[in-house]
Fold:
Amino acid sequence: MSRLVLASRSPRRKALLERLGLPIEIAPAEVDESRRPGEPPRWHVRRLASEKARKVAKTLSGEGPAFVIGADTEVVVDGEVLGKPADLPDARRMLRLLSGRRHEVITGYAVLPAAGPAKARGVTGVVSTQVEFKKLDDEEIDAYLSTGEPMHKAGAYAIQGVGSFLVRRIRGSHSNVIGLPVCEVMEALRALGAIRSPIGPDAKPDEE
Structure:
């Protein structure tokens, strides 16, 4: 198996890939995440995912076969992109905005070869998931804010954490809402020859 490097410091993305038995190295990429004027959200996340992967890939040149995975996730409602809240009032604003409504979670991903004999161009894409929140009252919002979980999450919630109680239903990839569309990334890794098996030998099955 080739070296697999995740261009992100997100523990959630790392955990999703390790669950499938993949040995993942972490090499966070620092890029300017500002949106360009008039740039649609889908273009934005795809561009950032590619920029992150390319930046890390350049540092791995000459170190043997390696592939870099880049990703960027945004929450979009009524055309507004909700990033990580700036402060507690901003997190409260986001939760009130999402309350009782559907929104879109989009993740751009990029899987790029960094070194070795494989010189494929790489695979990039965007995955969208529709998420519907329950109608939230102030007590529920305040209780969730008190956990501190919303402060470092796009859209001010984490579906894999305490924030699961906010979500009435989803349509599309669950892992995409967490931060990485696992199905599409695994398909890209296989297509590029980065992995041979659909899952790694150390895959961790769910235990009741």
Q: What stands out?
A: Residues 3-191 form a domain with the Maf protein fold (CATH 3.90.950.10). Residues 77 and 103 are 5 Å apart (CA to CA). The chain has one domain: 3-191. Helices lie at 11-19, 41-59, 88-98, 138-145, 174-178, 182-191.
